[in-house]
Structures are given as C-alpha cells and as structure tokens.
Amino acid sequence: VVGKLEGDPLMVRGFYNTLLLTELKINLAEGIFFDMDWASLRKCVPVASGGIHCGQMHQLLYYLGDDVVL
Q1: pLDDT tens digits for 58-68?
Q2: Which of 41, 43, 68, 46 minimizes the C-alpha distance to 57?
Q3: Is residue 32 part of a domain?
Q4: DSSP-assigned letters across all residues of the chain
Q5: Is 23 in contact with 37 (CB distance < 8 Å)?
Q6: Residue 2 lies inside a defined structural domain of this protein
Q7: I want to staple 24 with a disulfide (CB 3.0 to 4.6 A). Which of 2, 36, 61, 65 is the partner?
Q8: pTM (2 d.p.)
Q9: First-to-last CA distance in the chain?
C-alpha cells in the first residue's frame, strides 16, 4: 500500500478490520472469505511499523484510519 506494507489497499484494510472488529461478514475484495464472529475475544490495536517515512503518514492514515499506532 504505502512504503513496505504489502498488498493492495483493500486487502490491508481487511487485515486491519480482522484485528479491530468483533464480527466480520464475507468481503472477498478485502480478503475475508467467510463470516467471522470472535465472540468475547478482545480486540487488538493494529500497528504499522518498520521504517515508516514521516512524509507517508498521511497516506497510512487515509488507508488505515486514525485508530492505528504509527
């Protein structure tokens, strides 16, 4: 997506939604191939790490939302 993040923007958003949401519906574009209900499992905080360039942070926030650790 941006920098060293691998995959297209929709696929990366699907990975992040898997961490953030407690229930997911099928969304093939985002790589979610079956319904997922995480029941009472706690949510995770997505972390975009690994040499983020400060000039690309606005792009990461656009794709991943503002509830991510940069």
Answers
A1: 887 887 777 77
A2: 68
A3: yes
A4: --TT--S-HHHHHHHHHHHH-SEE--BGGGTB-S-EE-TTPPP---B--SS--GGGHHHHHHHH-SSSB-
A5: yes
A6: no
A7: 36
A8: 0.62
A9: 15
Tell me which residue has tokens 């997505």. Answer: 46
Q: Residue 1: inside a domain, yes or no?
A: no
pLDDT tens digits, 28-43: 998 899 998 988 777 7
The rounded Cα 44 to chain-centroid distance in angstroms is: 11
Which residue pairs, CB below 8 angstroms and at least 24 apart, start in 48-52?
A: 48/5, 50/3, 50/4, 51/3, 51/4, 52/3
Task: Kindly report the length of the chain.
Answer: 70
Question: Domain span at residue 16?
Answer: 9-64
What tokens does 8 get? 């297209």
Whether 47 and 68 have beta carbons less than 8 Å apart is answered as: yes
- The residue whose two tokens read 């229930």 is 23
